[in-house]
Structure to design on (332 residues):
């Protein structure tokens, strides 16, 4: 298999590349990444270079995309602008990457009749009330609430249209919130970990009641591989591990695992339009593809993640000051 992975130097994409090299040693992976602030070539250190090609480029670039898609057997599309706060500051890059970039890749997949898997998010469904017993399923209506989630919803619709109108061999997965190694410090869990490691209190949006459904990036990777190899063309699969936790409990657990007072955090301004609750129903993935997660114990996965950030100061330190300056300007 010759696999093209877009955004493969980012957080979730690089975890997927590591996972595939471990599980499918004979495959050759080409990573296409624009190396924006959220991409890092170091995320691919330690991999077998004889089975890896790295290309710096933008998924909106027709010439690069055409060449790389023509040379591969399948495309796994992770590349995206993904940080909600940034989408509130400037939506334009989200439209360019998430919509135009996905269109560019789909057209190439159409030309060369390539298998295509699109990585999306549960945020396209909007949010649920805290006391709502329901979870998001593949049949949940779309109701995005931010520039980020609306552009991801747009890209999902493009994939479905290209399947129906042009016969593109595509699948979609909508995943809950990821955590694990290689995640930029602007994101919720690594931000709190690194604040504590630098001797400051972690930061909690508003009251901290907002609920997220957490999944370790390795479990996300194994699910994507299962869908790529055995998923039904045209289908969507929800990816989650029943990992609902509110933000306050996550911050308190991080403090506890690092040996600090669980109440030693600061409240900061809430995010505008902050979704209340995400929750994934992944029954289809389990029943149809037999997928099972590895990290079913959130505390154990979080402990391993804290250790990774503690052991890799040189990886995240260069990102930290600029990230905190942006948050400070927002009162967060």
């Amino acid at each position: 298999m010759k696999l093209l992975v877009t955004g493969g130097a980012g957080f979730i994409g690089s975890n997927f590349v590591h996972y595939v090299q471990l599980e499918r040693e004979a495959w050759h992976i080409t990573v296409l990444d624009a190396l924006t602030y959220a991409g890092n070539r170091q995320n691919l250190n330690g991999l077998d270079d004889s089975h890896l090609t790295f290309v710096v480029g933008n998924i909106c670039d027709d010439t690069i995309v055409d060449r790389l898609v023509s040379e591969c057997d399948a495309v796994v599309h992770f590349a995206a602008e993904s940080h909600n706060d940034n989408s509130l500051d400037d939506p334009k890059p989200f439209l360019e990457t998430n919509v135009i970039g996905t269109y560019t890749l789909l057209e190439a997949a159409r030309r060369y009749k390539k298998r295509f898997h699109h990585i999306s998010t549960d945020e396209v469904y909007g949010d649920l009330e805290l006391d709502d017993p329901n979870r998001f399923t593949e049949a949940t209506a779309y109701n995005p609430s931010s520039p980020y989630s609306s552009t991801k919803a747009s890209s999902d619709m493009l994939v479905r249209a290209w399947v129906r109108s042009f016969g593109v061999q595509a699948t979609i997965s909508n995943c809950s919130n990821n955590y694990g190694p290689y995640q930029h410090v602007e994101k919720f869990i690594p931000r709190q970990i690194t604040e504590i490691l630098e001797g400051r209190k972690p930061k909690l949006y508003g009251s901290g009641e907002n609920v997220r459904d957490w999944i370790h990036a390795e479990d996300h990777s194994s699910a994507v591989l299962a869908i790529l190899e055995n998923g039904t063309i045209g289908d969507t699969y929800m990816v989650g591990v029943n990992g609902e936790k509110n933000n306050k409990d996550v911050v308190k657990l991080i403090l506890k695992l690092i040996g600090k007072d669980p109440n030693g955090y600061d409240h900061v301004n809430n995010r505008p339009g902050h979704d209340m609750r995400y929750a994934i129903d992944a029954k289809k993935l389990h029943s149809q593809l037999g997928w099972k997660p590895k990290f079913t114990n959130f505390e154990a996965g979080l402990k391993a993640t804290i250790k990774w950030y503690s052991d890799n100061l040189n990886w995240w330190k260069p990102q930290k000051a600029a990230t905190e300056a942006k948050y400070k300007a927002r009162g967060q």
